[in-house]
Design a protein that fits this description.
single chain; 359 residues; alpha/beta; Isopropylmalate Dehydrogenase; 2 domains; binds 3-isopropylmalic acid; binds magnesium ion
Length: 359
């Protein structure tokens, strides 16, 4: 089977972490008899520099034509002076919209080997932490009507938070399906005490719940959810929420694990199409220095193997290889403690490829 992957290395450390991930995928292909073909395309700051826009049509077309997209990172100080609409980050929103990537899966897990990095008291996370935030990604305030207007009081601006029943239903189904594959526990997060869009959200989630009698569902207001995540994170398993709340809560959840440099993500459309990227950003301060941690991108590729290609054993193997390298004590700078030996991006990639070889 030939799997076609569009690669968006992007900016900063993006190209370095993507390069190591490609080596890992090639090793998986070699071991299991799959062939992965890669087409590299531009998005973000490098696309602004080369094509005059952050998301060229050609990039969208090639992504659409592929089975999956693997993205490194976009953005950097070089483009910070640009007006909002022209910034590299807009490429992400453009890709989400154009590719219909409505379901964003952001696992926040605590790697046992890195438990020290967790900023919470050990007793709060004993036995590990394994949460998935399912964030709605193509609706809500990010994509609602927005405008700058003149009012009696001067200039004003607004952004509309709007959700249709269809949009809530389809993300709820993704979350319930995820809960069924895990511990059958789902928390829906909204602000139904204040927002009409949240009341619709809650009603539709409750309707979908009828099809999943085995899933234990509860509802939290977003302010309470933010508090509970640091107070008692182990009460959460799958969290489903809107675009803006998911943006905020997924950052919080990732920080609770203490290893944001380790976390992958998937953005899925209907069917099996998806875009996969690390949760971390482009880290321009260490770009090109062989210092970046490629593990989050490699774990994103594992999600791609699992969710888009249905290669479950291969996905498990990649995750296992990452865990093995951690267990052997190898650390890139972002996850190293004082006094620990530090490896670079390329060595980290090589160690993971070697671990796959030995499995
Ligand atoms: C994220 C980022 C993006 C978002 C930005 C860069 C547009 O914060 O993927 O979480 O808000 O969705
Ligand atoms: Mg964010």
């Amino acid at each position: 089977m030939d799997y076609r992957i569009a690669l968006i290395p992007g900016d900063g450390i993006g190209p370095e972490v993507i390069a190591e991930t490609v080596k890992v995928l090639e090793k998986v292909g070699e071991k299991h008899g799959h062939s992965f073909s890669f087409t590299e395309v531009l998005a973000g700051g490098c696309a602004i520099d080369n094509k005059g826009e952050c998301l060229p049509q050609e990039t969208i077309d090639i992504c659409r034509d592929s089975d999956a997209v693997l993205l490194g990172a976009v953005g950097g100080p070089k483009w910070d002076h640009l007006p909002g609409k022209e910034r590299p980050e807009m490429a992400l929103l453009g890709l989400r919209g154009a590719l219909g990537l409505f379901a964003n899966l952001r696992p926040a897990m605590l790697f046992e080997e890195l438990a020290d990095a967790c900023p919470l008291k050990p007793e709060l996370v004993s036995g590990g932490l394994d949460i998935v935030v399912v964030r709605e990604l193509t609706g809500g305030i990010y994509f609602g009507k927005k405008e700058i207007i003149e009012t009696e009081d001067g200039v004003a601006a607004y952004d509309v938070e709007q959700y249709s029943e269809m949009e809530v239903r389809r993300i709820a189904k993704v979350a319930f399906d995820m809960a069924m594959k895990r511990n059958r526990k789902l928390t829906s997060v909204d602000k139904a005490n204040v927002l009409e869009s949240s009341r619709l959200w809650r009603r539709v989630v409750n309707e979908v719940a009828k099809d999943y009698p085995d899933v234990e569902l509860n509802h939290f207001y977003v302010d309470n959810a933010a508090m509970q995540l640091v107070r008692e994170p182990k009460q959460f398993d799958v969290i489903v929420t809107s675009n803006i709340f998911g943006d905020i809560l997924s950052d919080e959840a990732s920080q609770v694990t203490g290893s944001i440099g380790m976390l992958p993500s998937a953005s899925l459309a209907t069917g099996n199409f998806g875009m996969y990227e690390p949760v971390h950003g482009s880290a321009p301060d260490i770009a090109g220095q062989d210092k970046a941690n490629p593990m989050a991108t490699i774990l994103s590729a594992a999600m791609m193997l699992r969710y888009t290609f249905g290669l479950l054993d291969e996905a498990d193997e990649v995750e296992e290889a990452v865990r093995k390298v951690l267990a052997e004590g190898y650390r890139t700078a972002d996850i190293a403690k004082e006094g620990e030996d530090i490896i670079g991006t390329r060595q980290c990639g090589r160690l993971i490829v070697d671990a796959l070889d030995q499995m």
